[in-house]
């Protein structure tokens, strides 16, 4: 059983930056593909970014390309979401997901971008 804990969400102004962290325990972190999703109030949860087990392959939703990156540190059992040039529409709860033959979710961290 893998446990995921997100952190780093806070209130930030438009144009600002944040780095979210997701730390895993209970499994071999490097065996999992990792991803970030988000859910804004009244909306469905949506894909933001994902990274391969080694960290060499990444994929992003069009609305974050060029602004967000998803590095991972397998030695620290942690995946990050570096968010730059934040916009009010980035306001959401951000969730971390680990995928192998099973899928695990964290409880989320709230990011609020003020205009």
Overview of the structural elements:
- There is one protein chain.
- The protein is mainly β and 115 residues long.
- The chain is 0% helix and 51% strand.
- The protein has strands at 3-7, 11-13, 18-25, 33-39, 46-51, 58-60, 68-69, 72-73, 78-83, 92-99, 103-105, 109-114.
- Strands 2, 4, 5, 6, 10, 11 and 12 form a 7-stranded mixed sheet that branches.
- β5 and β6 form a beta hairpin.
- The mean pLDDT is 97.
What's the alpha carbon Rg, rounded to whole Å? 13 Å
Number of helices: 0
**How would you describe the oligomerization state of the chains in this entry?**
single chain
The biggest beta sheet reads: 7 strands, mixed
Q: What is the strand content?
A: over 45%
* H and E order: EEEEEEEEEEEE
Q: What's the overall geometry?
A: globular
- Number of distinct beta strands: 12
Query: Overall pLDDT, averaged?
Result: 97
Helix content: under 10%
Distance N to C terminus: 40 Å
Would you identify the regions where 5 or more consecutive residues have pLDDT less than 50?
Answer: none
**Structural class by helix and strand composition:** mainly beta
Compact summary:
With 115 residues, the protein is mainly β. It has strands spanning 3-7, 11-13, 18-25, 33-39, 46-51, 58-60, 68-69, 72-73, 78-83, 92-99, 103-105, 109-114.
């Amino acid at each position: 059983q893998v446990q995921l804990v997100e952190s780093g969400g806070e209130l930030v102004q438009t144009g600002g930056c944040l780095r979210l962290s997701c730390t895993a325990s209970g499994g071999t972190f490097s065996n999992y593909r990792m991803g970030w999703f988000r859910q804004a109030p009244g909306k469905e949860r949506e894909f933001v970014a994902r990274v391969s087990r080694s960290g060499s392959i990444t994929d992003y939703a069009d609305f974050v390309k060029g602004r967000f990156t998803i590095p991972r540190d397998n030695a620290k059992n942690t995946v990050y979401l570096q968010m730059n040039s934040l916009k009010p529409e980035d306001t959401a709860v951000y969730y971390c997901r680990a995928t192998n033959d099973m899928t695990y979710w964290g409880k989320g961290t709230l990011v609020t971008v003020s205009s």
